[in-house]
Amino acid sequence: MPLLSRRVLLRTGAAATIAGVAAVAGLETGAIPGRAKVHDVLGLSGPDGVVPDVPPGPVESGTFESAARRTTVGYSIIRPHESSAELPVVLALHGRGGDHTSAIGDLGMDRYLTAAMRSGTPPFAVATVDGGRDNYWHPRATGDDPLRMLSAEFLPLLAKRGLHIDRVGVLGWSMGGYGALLSGGRSAVAIGAMSPALWRRYDEDVADGAFDGADDFEQHQVFGRPLENVAVRIDCGRDDPFADAAGDLRRELHAAGGQQAGAHTAGYWRRMLPEQLRFLGEKLAR
Fold first, then answer.
1. pTM of the model
2. By three-state DSSP, how is residue 257 classified?
């Protein structure tokens, strides 16, 4: 068999180089799927947040009968370590498939809160509650209304526990990030959203069960609805499927935050928690 000529080898090498460049460009622009997995393998997704090695804040957990949600609802109140003062509160809204235990079990919120206070963030408590595993924190056709539960039932409960509810913050991730943006305009002075589950149009691959139909989607849309007198921070990983929509909303609202290395993972949310907690604490202190 004759040896390949130098010209053929050069042409083959050039073609391979062009194909490789095109493949990389396709991955980076999203034209070719799999960018998040490739970035993860190459170590380009950023490190997972590590729960701080500090004492956890005290946690009070319980349940109450929710008329708004038509079920028994669990909750947890996390106070900063070594703090006995009366505190403002941040509502923490969990993601899809989660519940009130996710803030501690998945994110280590009780330790991150202690670390935030030790770094100089003004003190506050974090209160988390069951919003339904896939309700997306808005009223549903079934009559389940987690938004009303937050305002009409959970906030009064927190007031009875000695927390100040006149200046409230809201923090959420994924489904809860959308919920924070949706609910925050009602009573909050500050909103923190990590990887919020956002869609611009109902036909844009909306997650199954997230809305009861196109009308429900439009009624509970967060785009095109300015949040007045509310400080907002939105963070989303560049390899997150919601990155583009999150960036659009961040620019629309002139919100703080940004797009960092990362995907739609608890490791990314833990990495962003220190900045989110600092943002919320400083806004509540004003």
1. 0.85
2. strand
